């Protein structure tokens, strides 16, 4: 028997080894230690086979088996292998990348406990009755943990005395897998409206199906999730809930724990390593019945999986942008299909891909239209053409902000640009602060007295004079959230300004503090980026102001209009969630554009139909599959020549019209961290043909030695094409 083993290397292949001589044959999904070149590394057994392409005498043997049972159960192993094949990523990097750090380094899958066992004779303890009782108790039980000793009433001092006398010894042991205790009766939730009950009836049950829960903001999608998951738990199953960002995890976990108690675990990269491992163990053992997490949670083992929920399914954060570039929403659907369980995709602004699947009959849709709030927020477009502005705010906008604050309410101002100003320039000679490593301008951050690059994190002090001409007339052009906060504080003195962006809330705890202050309900100005737009419930907010959204109409990215509409409607949905009706103000230079007319009407479904029709005419996703090859090198010509060769090979394998090859074109931005970037895009007529071509191309490219310093990657179903 030959073992095919995945190793954490960038090679798109498996490695053959002989079974270990002193161990039983390791099961698929177990970790093993193997010799690899001159070093030793961990691997994961992926297959057993009868023969190898190499002669048996050239094969080396596995040195040790780390897991008595599979670390990656069959469903997770199958999902990861499918994903590695679909996204054309090295299988070893995929398998090890989905494990918590300690497991990647060889730590036991189940927590190792220290057990104290009796040894020797207890007659010598005749004058120490408590020590003798402890020794006898340990001998009868065969050992106990420190927790069990404490529960039995034995103190650490007694144990230390026995250890000093050599009458007990500590041994490491792995406890048996936990059998989940029955879930306590969940707390009563609010009564469901008739529309919600109908949606729940459509979601309830078993067997694989994909349901889009399309509900406007405030229509109660989360209550439907909770009720559906309650039914899943009552059937003795587990539930997986995916949220797009770490910032949404704490409030989601809190809401679920209020309903279901302590059977809820969370899993995301913001947790300390130990907590992340503990959550993984709880889920894999069945102790946790509900797992809530970001995209990486899609790979966590759940032995009794009965339902998958993907909240805010449209959010681009579900797509990993570096390394293993998978889409968690799509893998959630694959995982649910493999496990024959239902999956719910929830959104107020569904992605065009999901709506296209509904049109094709692959997914079904359940619509929620009744809001818990009195009525949808009222929209107002403020035309900026020719209007005097104060800190980027027009007079009608300032009047509305003052009116809502005077009424004791909260106002949310949305600007999706952090920092103080995106440009620092010299008014005398026109010099601008540019990053020396990237083809972008440095962003001014006055609170840190720094110029920072938002791509490579290069930083330098804010200059006092122009480096080019020596003039002291340096000016800030444009504004970010930091500058807008300064402006709002000056315009509305005495009103607290709570800023929420990556700079002001660098940890989950600081974000929670800011959100707690907002939920307190005191009149204040909330200012932030898209971190504020998603899923938060702020009943005190009655006015939402959207600034600088025209870029969605001007961007060359074919997804820009969809993204702008989703973000604008998500921000608008934060207003009017309490008893007071909400109001939304959108400032624009293009108020007469049909795009904004759809937004004001709240007609996302109609806007999505228009965008889908446009995509169909242009032959863009979701009507044709898309992939991007990216190359970067210190010298631009090397990256461009490499992709020219990739295109030549690709066109021989997938010529027009089966494939449409575009580029190579400079990336956006063209240079990052001192490396030039180029992009080659390919649209396929069919997913199967494109997948076969990409696999063959990756095999060819891996067998060729690239130019020195060149790095390349492949992104299947990219969300960003620059």
Q: What share of residues is helical? A: 25-40%
So what's the overall shape? globular
Task: Please mark out the parts with pLDDT under 50 across 5 or more consecutive residues, or reply none.
Answer: 177-182
Kindly name the structural category.
Answer: alpha/beta
CATH superfamily grouping of the largest domain = P-loop containing nucleotide triphosphate hydrolases
Biggest sheet features: 7 strands, parallel
- CATH-scheme architecture of the largest domain: 3-Layer(aba) Sandwich
* Approximate strand percentage: 15-25%
- Order of neighbouring strands in the sheet with most strands: 11-12-10-13-14-9-15
Subunit arrangement of the protein: single chain
Classify the fold: give the CATH topology of the largest domain.
Rossmann fold
Describe the structure.
With 722 residues, this protein is α/β, with parallel strands linked by helices. It has 6 domains: 2-104, GIY-YIG endonuclease (3-Layer(aba) Sandwich), CATH 3.40.1440; 113-173; 194-368, Rossmann fold (3-Layer(aba) Sandwich), CATH 3.40.50.300; 378-420 and 479-614, Rossmann fold, CATH 3.40.50.300; 422-475, no CATH class; 626-716, Alpha-Beta Plaits. It is 32% helix and 23% strand. The strands form 8 sheets. Strands 11-12-10-13-14-9-15 form a 7-stranded parallel sheet, with helices on both faces. A 6-stranded parallel sheet has the order 16-28-27-19-26-25, with helices on both faces. β21 and β22 form a beta hairpin. The longest helix has 18 residues, at 636-653. The model is unreliable at 177-182 (pLDDT under 50).
